[in-house]
Design goal:
Layout: H1 2-17, E1 39-41, E2 44-46, H2 54-63, E3 75-76, E4 80-81, H3 83-95, H4 103-109, E5 111-113, E6 123-126, E7 135-141, E8 144-147, E9 156-159, H5 163-168, E10 169-174
Antiparallel strand pairs: 1-2, 3-4, 5-10, 6-7, 6-10, 7-8, 8-9
Helix pairs in contact: 2-3
Length: 179
């Protein structure tokens, strides 16, 4: 009887230490968008969406965030978004690519454009705290942009030519390669 108990215990212990059986086939890995080669001009590499149509999808997806609450440092619509968190979130959802969660860093890695070159899906930057790239949004066209402002705390559409933002406009950037 004692020997049977020892054999049973040894069998249990060896089962815990053995490797699990190999799966019959490799599980499928999710497809991830492979970013295209960086857009290089003037010796600088800029972030670029893998597909230029993503710029339009960015605009469409941004409307789904209207009314989302503001949260400093937020990058998830369920918990709240800040301005760069909103842009980073949308780029990730639309293209699978990653942008930093910081307006000034996003401005540094994206291609500068002139204000008159703005197209829907480009980025606009403002100086709201004494720093040139302290706030940002996504340009919608017709002098409008969508952003996550801390004042009145909800994602909303604003006019770029309103008194507040017109005085604070800093720069525009594109998320697509030179066209």
């Amino acid at each position: 009887m004692q020997r049977a108990a020892l054999v049973f215990a040894a069998t249990l212990l060896s089962a815990c230490g053995s490797a699990p059986p190999a799966p019959e086939s490799e599980p499928e890995r999710p497809q991830r968008t492979i970013p295209r080669q960086p857009d290089i001009r003037d010796g600088r590499a800029y972030f670029s969406l893998a597909d230029p149509s993503h710029r339009e999808e960015l605009v469409i997806a941004s409307y789904n965030l209207l009314g989302t609450g503001y949260r400093f440092g937020g990058s998830n619509p369920d918990a709240g978004l800040d301005c760069s968190g909103m842009v980073s979130y949308l780029v990730r959802v639309v293209s699978g690519q990653t942008l930093p969660h910081n307006a000034a860093r996003i401005a540094r890695i994206t291609r500068p454009i002139r204000r008159h070159e703005l197209q829907a899906g480009d980025l606009v930057f403002f100086n709201t705290t004494g720093k040139p790239y302290s706030h940002m949004g996504i340009y919608l066209g017709d002098e409008r942009f969508i952003h996550a402002p801390s004042s009145r705390g909800k994602v909303r559409v604003e006019r770029m030519d309103n008194r507040y933002f017109a005085k604070r406009y800093t720069a525009a950037r594109s998320l697509v390669a030179y066209e």
